[in-house]
Design a protein that fits this description.
The structure is a homodimer. With about 650 residues, chain A is an alpha/beta fold. Chain A has 5 domains: about 90 residues, Beta-grasp domain (Ubiquitin-like (UB roll), Roll), CATH 3.10.20.30; about 170 residues, Domain of unknown function (DUF4445) (Nucleotidyltransferase, domain 5, 2-Layer Sandwich), CATH 3.30.420.480; about 80 residues, Roll (Ubiquitin-like (UB roll)); about 160 residues, 2-Layer Sandwich (Nucleotidyltransferase, domain 5), CATH 3.30.420; about 80 residues, no CATH class. Chain A has 17 helices and 29 strands. In chain A, the strands form 7 sheets. In chain A, strands 14-13-12-15-17-16 form a 6-stranded mixed beta sheet, sandwiched between helices. A 6-stranded mixed beta sheet of chain A has the order 28-27-18-19-20-29, sandwiched between helices. In chain A, helix 15 packs across helix 16. The longest helix of chain A is centred in the last third of the chain and has 24 residues. Chain A is globular. Chain A starts with a strand and ends in a 17-residue tail after the last helix. At the A-B interface, helix 5, strand 9, helix 6 and helix 7 of A face helix 5, strand 9, helix 6 and helix 7 of B.
Chain lengths: ~650, ~650
Amino acid sequence: MSRFKVTFHPYNKTVEVEKDATILSAAVSAGVPINSVCGGDGVCGRCKVVLKKGSVLMQATGLLSPEEKKRGVYLACLSEVQSDIEVEVPRGSTADFEKISTQELKKTFSDIEDIEPVKPAIRERLFTKMPLTVKLYLSLQPPDLNDKVSDLDRLCGRIKKAENFSALQLGIVNIRNLSELLRSSGWKVTVTLSRRDQTTEITQIEPQDTSLKNFGMCFDIGTTTLTGQLVDLNKSEILGTKTAYNKQATFGSDVITRIIYAREPDGLEKLHCAVTEEMNRMIQELIAEHNVDLNDLTCVLCAGNTTMTHLLLRIDPTYIRKEPYVPTANFIPPIRATEAGIKINPRGLLYCVPGVASYVGGDVTSGVLSCGMNDQAASLNVLIDIGTNGEIVLGHKDYLISCAASAGPAFEGSGVSCGMRATKGAIQKVKISSRDFEPSYETIGGAKPRGICGSGYIDLIAEMLRSGIIDKDGKIKPLEHKRIRQSDMGREFVVVFKDNADSSSDIAINDADIDNLKRAKAAIYSALSCLLKHMGLDFDSVPKIFIAGGFGTSVDINNAINIGLLPDVKRNKIIFVGNSSIAGARAMLLSYEAMEQAEEIARKMTYLDLSTEPAYMDEYMAALFFPHTDLAKFPSVKL
Amino acid sequence: MSRFKVTFHPYNKTVEVEKDATILSAAVSAGVPINSVCGGDGVCGRCKVVLKKGSVLMQATGLLSPEEKKRGVYLACLSEVQSDIEVEVPRGSTADFEKISTQELKKTFSDIEDIEPVKPAIRERLFTKMPLTVKLYLSLQPPDLNDKVSDLDRLCGRIKKAENFSALQLGIVNIRNLSELLRSSGWKVTVTLSRRDQTTEITQIEPQDTSLKNFGMCFDIGTTTLTGQLVDLNKSEILGTKTAYNKQATFGSDVITRIIYAREPDGLEKLHCAVTEEMNRMIQELIAEHNVDLNDLTCVLCAGNTTMTHLLLRIDPTYIRKEPYVPTANFIPPIRATEAGIKINPRGLLYCVPGVASYVGGDVTSGVLSCGMNDQAASLNVLIDIGTNGEIVLGHKDYLISCAASAGPAFEGSGVSCGMRATKGAIQKVKISSRDFEPSYETIGGAKPRGICGSGYIDLIAEMLRSGIIDKDGKIKPLEHKRIRQSDMGREFVVVFKDNADSSSDIAINDADIDNLKRAKAAIYSALSCLLKHMGLDFDSVPKIFIAGGFGTSVDINNAINIGLLPDVKRNKIIFVGNSSIAGARAMLLSYEAMEQAEEIARKMTYLDLSTEPAYMDEYMAALFFPHTDLAKFPSVKL
């Protein structure tokens, strides 16, 4: 079979592929980060490239305008290589990760990252049982001629007496030197006990009293964003939080692309390492900052969507995306952290929050727990987790039903030209003067603006809409204004010129960005609408709507409704809970009662597959306006 | 500190030691096998060496005769090196192992070894529960859009439905490729399930139906002898048995010496490897002979005394021999066999039969089980396990009491000049003509005689006693006869001249051998006597005495009583059960109900430390005659 060279500009990378390979697969081989939300199905229209030389064969698509076709724009996923070719990857088609230089990553990484909001919802709840891992200091009675119980039975007997641990397990490693350890320490030792379903494992035996040093890590592993938290398990205290982009994004911006990539040679391994290396780096930084010894980090708990959990554990994720969309596992037994490449105490365990289905994972279970939706007293509520894979849960103690809406990472500041995570320097609030279109804004930490985070985008679109800069379709009007100009992604509106920004270029929003954000908000709104309809309910039936996600701490509720992201309900029904996944994960780390409840939540929750709901596509299409095609659904919105 | 050279003849080995080091410790460093039953405490008098050059300082001892002192004989354990020295290790001081050349070992190893007697005692018992490891073939319903249970839940749900397995565990290794495995096998798989205390582990998942191939190994790990058995777990059938000497004997003939040796640099590791290498070799040979794939060998179960179990698992055994004599563990949780260096299926488990105390181990528990002493219907019985470390158990379903008597390995054919295990070519029966002292004998397998096994020695001593060749003290009389001559171990009596033997030298018994056998039988008789007295009982109170041990299948009860090894009771009370340890181990392998009973036995059994019984030493001294000092105890014995 003939082989051809494909060269990508501006990366200056060349790769050889077989005839009829797609440009997208060539880009994956070359390590060129082309955006592809739909995973190469020709649906999202994000993987646009410009053919500079050579010939390709492209399947018919309605996602390119006649103007684009004239310019030589092709969808990388639908175009098959027919000769040596050269293509240009425009800025808007680049997977967001590429934008963040190593230096920049380091900067955001070491920032004070206070976006983790411990909302009342979780604070009010009291879990009485102990952490997943506890340290117990024991002073044992030495044996004598009248008491010749073996060392191990002596130790286990004492543990059972101290606390109600039923079935104790331990590995041979901890037995081998037990006799010497007990005697050299004068029979005073500290045991580390970790829950393992119905049993308890003695993971470590240390001389003397080390019980004050017992720490855990919890992680929210998002498709786009990683959040890690170091917790003092004795004091139930958060010592520090880190967030970072999930480096798996280099292999695809969404779960589908990554599942496909996992089938490449070493693909699964690379995806696995991309996330674990970042997690290990977070751990290293946190323990260094807080003077914690790695050995005293005795357990780690991860909440992630189902694909993230599979990739973390190097479990083949292939069948998540193939009908009938069944994951290998929703409930993962505790394993030794080192088996997943996570470096904590070498005998420490790794727990994964159980998930529900292929597209509703442990992060959602965790969110439901942290919002107390399963509480006896709770009424029928809704949780919307706005992430790359948006998830919605409806229910109360008796039932819970969930669905997923592939929103994309726009509200996490990814896949949009000037987007960033909600960290220092992110524009989080925007006002635009209707008179002269001059924007005023507020950044996180009051720093010079570096980009725009989710809450900033919500404000920005709402304000552009209100002030008439964009129409209800989201297109920037062809107005004569110094801030409005043509770009290669349609028109753009400059929010901050680079002279006033901590950025090498102007901070702007363009037609493509707005389109991304519109699709994201439409996916979420229509999913919620469908889920309620499916259950014979409407927005008024729900007393509380919890909004979770990493888009910032100060979302303007009115603006979120004005752009049609959230339904037009009484404002006090809407409660922003921040990262509910990490909050729930932390609760589980600190009490296995919370873990037990999470397991119950995951077992109880059902999953509604929207792709089989006939109404969903209509709802989605109708929501592709600001705020909506049917303005009767948004009576309080006056634009 | 000054350092001196110590040279050992005839080994021609030289080692450098510090001043005041004992000759015994120098021998251990040099790898010279000096016999030391007491472990260097100056008690057994076995480690005699002849000083040829240089000077040593020896503690006072009554164990050397004036004649020996004159000849330059020293006890290696009591003699401290004061200059460069040269010593001769006489044949009688050599640890037995050295006598067996590699070639010879190989020969005995590949013999048909049929000594494992499955006695009625165990055959009559019926255990209804399943083997420790079972294979279950499952044909699963594939998922569809109406049944989207995860692969793992589908599998586990099906297992729980098929059999009553409550808490299933499995490692991440078996989860990683589960999805592909299920689909590529058309949803037909075989799971291997292994008991782990109160839970069950899925140790393996294979495509298609492999359930017919499920095998286990059980081992009796004796101080002197190893016995291994390959069992078809489906058919409850023994496929083959191997026995071999425990190669740890190179480091010491008894548990005490080995515990001391374990403190040497790499000592524990060497002891561990000595036994596991032999076990692996047995496994390899058995599976090759019976066409079993190593992967289908799914579990291994070991019964051994407490020290053997510690060494097998590389657990520090130090405190077994230090007051108050407490082992690290009597109950060992199941571990992966590979963690102990045993090569079976890489995920297969290793089980150890629980022990009772430092000197009553899992082999005794196993013996009690196999004799059915814990049965509801059983009356008050006694089990005597005649091994290097002799153990005695008295009791029934309501109580069990045990004690240990350090008998030495003489009845296992070790530590005696022409001893051998009860395998092909061993003299197992002997008659001596009172008229002309001509012996007639019978060998195992009818082969040319190669040595004498335990039952042969019992006959031989009884016959020598009856025919007047030895006196009641066990000394060979200075008779003029072609078979009686002087040797460097006192007088000796030739049983078979080498021309008629499969041996490079005459097969004989000497004064030192008889002394060894006398001490062994005295230790056992007096221990039994003490144990009964302690409980306010006598020999007549006991309806059955089970005799276990590797001394052969055809012990002559009258002769065993005539030499005072067994008490003078009604002959039908005495039942030889062979290797009761391997029989019990096999029962456990084949049914976890047996394992549960063994655990109950071990928990229930108490231990009487004879060294704290004031009467024991007197009893022992009185038993150092054939049959006994007090002939009133042996009314039926006419000599």
